[in-house]
Amino acid sequence: RSTLLDVLLPKTGGARRIGLTGPPGSGKSTLTDRLIRLFRQEDRTVGVIAVDPTSPFTGGALLGDRLRMQGSWDDTGVFVRSMADRTHTGGLSASTPHVITAFDAFGKDVVIVETVGVGQSTLEIADVTDTTVVVLTPESGDSIQAMKAGLMEIADILVVNKDDRAGAGHFASELRMVLNMRQWADQWQPPILRISAQNNTGVDALYEQLTAHHQYLSEQQHFETRRLRQSRSAIDRAVEERLGHLLAGIPDIAAIMDRLSEQVARREIHPSAAAAEIIKKTNLE
Model-level pTM greater than 0.90? Predict the structure, then answer.
């Protein structure tokens, strides 16, 4: 796999990378379908990575977001890939960054990554995309909880979907109050858009904001800063993955972990000593 990625990497850099994240049922897939159509109207090719929860029975994608993107099935300019999160803790499949690389290398103009869930476990989406859209609904709960979950830290655009529902205006106002409490490191402040993906109202405004943010990154040369941050995160993920493979290759690793866990629980050894014993078995030291 590394050899293939090495070949693909020099061919990347041309795709716009857009992330959509939000709680289940917030209408992300319907919104993605609407955005696909707008990009296609400008003759832009689109790759979509829809990350679903892992089915406890099959180990595969549970929902299959392609079912909610039926309008793009027969469009050769669109490729939709559903992926199971495989219990990966970042809201993404561990292979998601590699698929983004492939889409980019094969010439997709736009790559949209849709992630499952919301909260601390989904903040990784900002490490693989240039523009992060956080999709919420009036039923999403307290906007303060969204702030605590770190969503305000990664959101470039905030969407209050299902605008026709009760409380949408109040919820959007709460989000604005939370945003106004923040100190912004740069000039871009996330707009809050009230839309209804199902009724196809307000989606054009989101499309315009996506374009505006893309232009902002280009003009302000923030792309380089973001890509450097993404590169650091990619290295971290690669190291974590390699270490995981090394640990999995230790004979009787499960029994060793059980023994060390019991010793730590009994306060016989410190966790750092347990870690040192495991690392020693990988021959890294």
Answer: no
Percent of the chain with pLDDT strictly greater than 70: 81
Whole-number Cα distances in Å, 72 to 35, 39, 66, 78, 238: 11, 12, 9, 7, 33
- How do residues 173-219 score in pLDDT, each as one tens digit? 888 887 887 766 667 889 999 999 999 999 999 999 999 999 999 88
Contact in structure between 25 and 35 (CB atoms under 8 Å)? no
* 166 phi/psi in degrees, rounded to 5: -60, 140
Dihedral pair phi/psi, residue 52, rounded to 5°? -105, 160
* Distance in angstroms (rounded) separating the CA atoms of residues 46 and 34: 12
Q: How many CB atoms lie within 10 A of CB 94?
A: 17
Kindly give, in sequence order, each residue whose CB lies less than 8 Å from that of residue 178, ignoring residues fewer than 6 positions away.
Answer: 143, 144, 146, 147, 152
**Contact in structure between 96 and 127 (CB atoms under 8 Å):** no
Domains along the sequence of the chain with CATH:
2-221 (3.40.50.300), 233-281 (no CATH)
From the DSSP assignment, how many helices (H) and strands (E) are in the chain? Answer: 10, 7
Longest Cα–Cα distance of the chain, Å, equals 65
Edge-to-edge strands, sheet with 78-84: 78-84, 46-52, 110-114, 16-21, 131-136, 157-160, 192-194
189 by Cβ neighbours in 10 Å (0-12 / 13-18 / 19+) ranks as exposed
